């Protein structure tokens, strides 16, 4: 009635089904494996493939700490891009001459801010957040 199928096709289909089901079961075991939490927040597994992101002190909220608080949103909106900051810090020699020569009290404060701004421009690796026991 039905055409005979080759046993290798059945075995290959079974193995493919087994691999796919095992892969899905492994992914469901720990939801933190894909690092879903954003903005350097900590992922805490809750069992059954679920997770919770600890957004404390990050300025963000939401399931994956992806929504900025009002204050964070305002600060990010007003912050200039790294290219703009670089342009302001490198160019306009006349401004720096005034600061260096005529405003010594402000000079130290401005240079400290410049160093802090420039240090934030350097990329650093993200914090490893998967081996925490809470």
TrEMBL record:
It is an enzyme of class 1 (oxidoreductase). GO terms for molecular function: prostaglandin-endoperoxide synthase activity. Its EC number is 1.14.99.1. Residues 28-66 form the EGF-like domain. It comes from Protodriloides symbioticus. Residues 1-25 form the signal peptide. This is Cyclooxygenase. InterPro entries: EGF (IPR000742), Haem_peroxidase_sf_animal (IPR037120). Keywords: EGF-like domain, Oxidoreductase, Signal. It comes from the Eukaryota. The gene is COX.
């Amino acid at each position: 009635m039905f055409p005979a199928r080759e046993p290798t096709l059945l075995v290959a289909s079974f193995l493919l089904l087994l691999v796919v089901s095992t892969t899905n079961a492994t992914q469901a075991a720990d939801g933190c494996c894909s690092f879903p939490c954003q903005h350097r927040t900590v992922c805490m597994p809750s069992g059954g493939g679920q997770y919770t992101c600890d957004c404390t002190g990050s300025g963000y909220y939401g399931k994956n700490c992806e929504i900025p608080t009002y204050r964070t949103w305002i600060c990010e909106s007003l912050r200039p891009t790294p290219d703009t900051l670089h342009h302001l810090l490198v160019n306009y020699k006349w401004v720096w001459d005034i600061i260096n020569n005529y405003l010594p009290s402000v000079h130290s404060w401005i240079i400290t801010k410049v160093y802090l701004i420039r240090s934030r421009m350097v990329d650093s690796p993200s914090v490893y957040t998967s081996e925490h026991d809470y």
